[in-house]
Design brief:
D-Maltodextrin-Binding Protein, domain 2, 2 domains
């Protein structure tokens, strides 16, 4: 009887050890640490904060930690040797411009993982009736573009507005060295355009609305020309390899969150507004929140993103826009070596 009891105990111990071993052998993605996601306190990114109340982490089987960082700190945090965040949201233009500096080591570079939404609200305004409206002629003829660039145009050097002008001139076959752009900030440019020392000036949403209020008009917009800055996920290559499944789940969580907020902006902004009230220096109301969103295009589904942001013929094709930006950076000698065109993950709807 004693022998039987000891034998049974041994079998029990072995069985427990076997079960423990099997539990420990679960796939890494099932026992992985939370995916730490860097976001900034802006109206667009704030939509992601709804994921918890919607139960999207449970739906997709992932633990997510949102880490609020200043916008300019997200890419450096991703590039650092530490682990502040695993993946973060960043600008395509900034990523391409800083590619060489952030990837000096080369062994484990940062990669642009997937475009999530578009800033498209920029453009140029004018108070001079003689300046042609390029938005009315898509695509404009080379002669019309040449006429446009004959006027005094203001844009801040190396800004996306300057890049938009480069894209327009390049498509019309007009060399950059034959185009003279006056380096000026948006606020100074608007005042100069109002007083006639500039014929057209770069304008964001605020400057555009002010120009229209003062009797000006819009003569060129990013939206009409398919040029924009794409905000998307950025991470180290090793992180994408190790946590690809979690990153794909995060992409779906993002679009589900955005779709929820847009389904009823008046009622579904409660959580994003609470986040912004706690984290942002900008004081949002529902109306100012909606106004800010006018300058952006946020796809509601992965299918929308694949069609509009990924496809070669998409309205805001990441490949086409990247080539425009890289051409600008190289021709103006801003970078010595052209950064690679990003190759986003292939994510199924």
């Amino acid at each position: 009887m004693r022998k039987f009891t000891i034998t049974g105990a041994i079998v029990s111990v072995l069985l427990v050890a076997f079960v423990a071993c099997r539990v420990d052998d679960k796939p890494a993605e099932q026992k992985s640490e939370p995916l730490r996601v860097g976001i900034s306190a802006y109206q667009d990114l704030a939509m992601l904060t709804t994921y918890k109340s919607l139960g999207l982490d449970t739906k997709y089987g992932i633990s997510v930690d949102l880490v609020t960082l200043d916008w300019e700190k997200i890419i450096p945090s991703l590039a650092s040797a530490g682990r502040t965040v695993d993946v973060g949201f960043g600008s395509l233009i900034e990523f391409l411009t800083k590619y060489q500096n952030i990837n000096t080591q080369g062994a484990d570079p940062l990669v642009y993982v997937f475009p999530m939404y578009v800033f498209k609200g920029g453009g140029f305004v004018s108070f001079n009736k003689a300046v042609p409206n390029l938005d009315e002629h898509i695509p404009p003829s080379p002669e019309l573009v040449k006429n446009f660039f004959a006027f005094k145009i203001g844009a801040q050097k190396n800004s996306m507005f300057d890049m938009l002008l480069f894209s327009v001139s390049e498509r019309a076959g007009i060399p950059r060295n034959s185009v003279h752009i006056i380096d000026t900030t948006m606020s100074d440019g608007l005042l100069a355009a109002e007083h006639g020392s500039l014929d057209a000036a770069a304008a964001g949403l605020t400057q555009r609305n002010e120009a229209l209020r003062q009797g000006g008009r819009i003569v060129l917009t990013m939206d009409k020309f398919g040029f924009a800055d794409l905000t998307g996920l950025i991470a180290k290559k090793s992180t994408v390899t190790a946590r690809r499944s979690d990153i794909e789940k995060l992409v779906h969580i993002w679009f589900d969150s955005v779709n929820f907020v847009y389904s009823d902006l008046d009622h579904n902004l409660t959580i994003p507004m609470a986040y912004l009230a706690a984290k942002s220096s900008t004081k949002y109301t529902i109306e100012t929140y909606k106004d800010a969103l006018e300058a952006e295009y946020l796809p509601r589904t992965v299918s929308d993103a694949n069609r509009d942001l990924i496809a070669a013929d998409g309205k805001f094709s990441i490949g086409r826009i990247s080539k425009d930006v890289i051409g600008y950076l190289v021709k103006l000698d801003i970078v010595k070596t052209a950064p690679p065109v990003p190759e986003p993950l292939v994510i199924k709807p």
